[in-house]
Design a protein that fits this description.
- The protein is mainly alpha-helical and about 100 residues long.
- The chain has one domain (about 10-100).
- It is about 75% helix and about 0% strand.
- Helix 2 (about 35-60) packs antiparallel against helix 3.
- The longest helix has 28 residues, at about 35-60.
- It is elongated, with a radius of gyration of 15 Å.
- It starts with 9 loop residues before the first helix and ends with a helix.
Amino acid sequence: MGWSVSRHSEPSRKLALLAGRLRTLRGLAKRDASSDHIAMAAEKLRLAALGVIKAKRALNQEFPQRDPDGRKSHKLDEEEQRRRALSPQAIAEECSKGHA
């Protein structure tokens, strides 16, 4: 059963920010911007992704029925660890590879 969440919810707004950061990073990569600009955009993308994870985790805590068996929480933990472990260069490569 899916739980509806308003498009004005915190995760939805954070996803919009994440999409903007991703567009910025891809645009910089496409324009062959300096590595410093790309690294800064990649770090902002990482922070936006971590913000989405944090908002989703808060939503799950606020509405425990959304994650009764804890699978979503476990997946969020794994995604957070993966995002924290990536270097800005790896993030930039991952995003530019996905766009090419």
